[in-house]
Write a structure and sequence with these properties.
The structure holds two protein chains of two kinds.
Chain A: H1 3-18, H2 22-37, H3 42-64, H4 73-88, H5 95-118, H6 122-142, H7 144-147, H8 172-194, H9 196-206, H10 208-213, H11 218-244, H12 254-267, H13 273-292, H14 297-311, H15 313-316, H16 321-330, H17 335-346
Helix pairs in contact in A: 2-8, 3-8, 3-11, 3-12, 3-13, 4-5, 4-6, 4-11, 5-6, 5-11, 8-11, 9-11, 12-13, 12-14
Chain B: H1 2-29, H2 36-53, H3 58-79, H4 89-111, E1 127-130, E2 133-136, H5 137-159, H6 161-171, H7 173-178, H8 183-209, H9 215-230, H10 236-255, H11 262-274
Antiparallel strand pairs in B: 1-2
Classes of the chains: A mainly alpha, B mainly alpha.
């Protein structure tokens, strides 16, 4: 094979990665169908969409860049409070615009704190992310004149989205709005992880030293993805505030960050859909178990976490094997088949 | 002023006893055990039950709490933790958070969610004055017990055969294995002992910091600060870090009540930026 051929082959494989898979289209088809088929469950569906977006944001740094964060709720909470304050003081009343601003604010915070995360080992990162979330929670608690302190931010009144769609108590608008935002941000994330930028992140996750030796600016890439993920988390938080018209200190809770890890682990990290699938499973499970014993719900989360680790994460995501095989058969991108054929010709 | 220093030292000593087990296990196996606080909580509740319900004298309840937590630590280490050492840090974090959540909910279920206290004997209540400095009797007891423990630990580590094995394993587990030291059993003993110390600290601390089912979550960050600031290569580092943290926290809450917990978080973040390996670490071995 000549060098030119090899380049063409690499190019072809990389572009094949980024083409849409039939199962992906089916996934979003189901999501769209749920808008029309499950009008009675829109409240919980909106929660799932928000949690899914939040998990997607963690997937960007954990699944793609390999940063273990125990304080991702910091950005979620920051976005939530920014959105709440913007609406309460009528600075920006249009929800969509406020959403963008909240996301940008959270991204800025992520950019500033990312320099803390760059240094040190996994343990230091865990500490720092946890510490940042605690500090923010403490700030929100102390500056009660601004944030309402422990009572939460009350009196948030949301204007209609785009001036057209009013938030209703059944969550119809909320779900459509959250799902649309999730889809747009998902497209962006998908574009990003399939770009050279995303590939370089995976290289860094694999081996930071080698990645640096290949000429990838490791620290700059990590800062960038951390800021982007923070922005995503901020948008998720802002969505929560906007759809519930309320923000409380619980948005910064450690439990939220820990649950988020569980959500991502259920679905599997590193392929973007893990967070979304995990969010669906987690919320349905919570709906069922919390109804049985609301106070002791953490026990079941803990048991699940311990069980997942003891059994092994690889084996947990093993339930997707049949789906993957089906996916390979349905694959019209032809990446596997054609490369197999090419390999046959070579021999 | 001196009273604050005194209280700070007592608090710091308490934190050290609570956290030193974590420092050693982390240094030895590079294992992130976020569930360390659960053992402290177990010791605390053990002391509460033993003293309040069974009427055992307080001083006798302390060793009981130690043994209870040590036994619990030993059993859990042999049955569950051994499977997780070789896994990634993410797995370790998930696993130990899972344990924390389970312990919080389980204790909530068994003991109720309200705060509990140990009934102290009369001679431990109140305070007396030495040269105008108010000295709480109970805090003095904590300082004495924790001081003796620290001294004992240091002696054991420096002068006994087990101590040298432990230090060798912490420095380089692979070479220690090659020299015929059974690192795993050293670790099992250390883990049990560290959990026992945490239990003792929990029992002592109920009076100072309170005890309720969320204890492991609330104090997780304190333990982690001690360990990251102090480093894991010796016990002197965590000891100094605990004192610093204890004094900083008490003084911060006294002088700047509006800032509250900011002081310690700020100390932590500054230290981590300045010296990511910890204040007192001798370079990085790994």
């Amino acid at each position: 094979m000549s060098t030119g051929d090899r380049h063409a082959e690499i190019y072809r494989r990389l572009t094949a990665r980024s083409r849409w898979h039939p199962l992906e289209i089916a996934f979003w088809g189901v999501a769209l169908a749920s808008v029309f088929l499950l009008p009675g469950r829109h409240l919980i569906l909106a929660e799932i969409a928000i949690l899914g977006l939040f998990a997607l944001s963690l997937d960007l740094i954990l699944g793609y860049a390999g940063i273990v964060s125990l304080g991702h709720a910091a950005f979620f909470g920051f976005g939530a409070y920014v959105a709440g304050l913007l609406a309460k003081h009528e600075i920006i009343t249009e929800p969509l615009l406020a959403l963008v601003v909240s996301g940008l604010a959270a991204a800025l915070l992520g950019f500033l704190t990312s320099f803390l995360v760059l240094r040190g080992s996994d343990l230091t990162r865990i500490m720092v992310t946890l510490g940042v979330a605690l500090v923010l929670r403490e700030i929100a608690n102390r500056y009660a004149w601004l944030t309402g302190g422990a009572d939460g931010l009350q009196g948030v009144e949301m204007k209609p989205v785009l001036g057209l769609y009013r938030f209703d108590m059944f969550g119809h608008t909320a779900y459509c709005y959250a799902l649309a935002v999730l889809f747009v941000l998902f497209l962006l994330a998908r574009r990003m992880v399939n770009s050279p930028f995303g590939l370089s992140l995976m290289a860094i996750k694999g081996n930071p030293l080698r990645a640096a030796a290949l000429g990838i600016p490791v620290n700059r890439r990590l800062v960038a993805v951390y800021a982007v993920a923070a922005g995503y988390a901020g948008v998720a938080g802002a969505l929560l505030t906007q759809t519930t018209a309320f923000a409380s200190l619980s948005v910064f809770d450690f439990d939220r960050s820990a649950d988020l890890l569980l959500v991502l682990i259920i679905g599997g990290a590193g392929y973007l859909y893990g967070g979304l699938i995990g969010a669906v499973v987690f919320k349905l499970m919570q709906d069922y178990l919390a109804a049985l014993t609301p106070q002791y719900w953490p026990f079941w989360i803990g048991l699940l976490l311990v069980a997942i680790v003891l059994v092994g994460r690889e084996r947990i995501t093993g339930w997707t094997q049949p789906i993957r095989r089906l996916a390979a058969r349905l694959d019209w991108r032809g990446g596997h088949r054609r490369s197999a054929a090419a390999a046959g010709q070579e021999r | 002023m001196l009273t604050i220093l005194f209280d700070g030292i007592a608090y710091g000593m308490l934190l050290f006893v609570l956290a030193c087990g974590l420092a050693v296990t982390l240094g030895l196996m590079n294992f992130v055990n976020l569930a360390h606080g659960a053992f402290a909580m177990a010791g605390g509740y053990c002391a509460v039950i033993v003293v309040n319900t069974w009427g055992v004298p307080f001083l006798l309840a302390l060793p009981i709490a130690f043994l209870f937590s040590a036994l619990l630590g030993f059993i859990l280490e042999r049955t569950l933790y051994v499977h997780v050492y070789r896994k990634s840090h993410l797995d370790q974090v998930l696993f130990t958070i899972g344990l924390v959540f389970m312990s919080v909910a389980a204790v909530d279920y068994v003991m109720g969610s309200s705060q509990v206290f140990v009934q102290l004997p009369d001679w431990l209540r109140g305070q007396f004055h030495v040269f105008g400095v108010g000295v709480g009797r109970y805090r003095l007891l904590i300082i004495v017990i924790c001081g003796l423990l620290t001294l004992g630990l240091q002696l054991v580590l420096s002068y006994t055969r087990f101590g040298s094995r432990l230090r060798a394993s912490v420095d380089d587990a692979r070479v220690a294995r090659g020299l015929g030291i059974s690192v795993n059993s050293v670790f099992a003993i250390t883990f049990a002992f560290g959990s026992g110390l945490a239990g003792l600290g929990g029992a002592l601390g109920t009076e100072i910091v309170g005890l309720d089912p969320t204890f492991p979550l609330k104090f997780m960050i304190y333990f982690l600060i001690v360990v990251t600031v102090g480093g894991t290569s010796s016990i002197t580092g965590p000891f100094l870090a605990s004192l610093l943290l204890g004094i900083g926290d008490v003084a911060g809450k006294y002088y700047f009540p509006t800032l509250g917990a900011f002081v310690i978080y700020t100390i932590m973040i500054v230290v981590l930026i300045w010296r990511p390996q910890g204040l007192f670490a001798r370079g990085s071995a790994r």
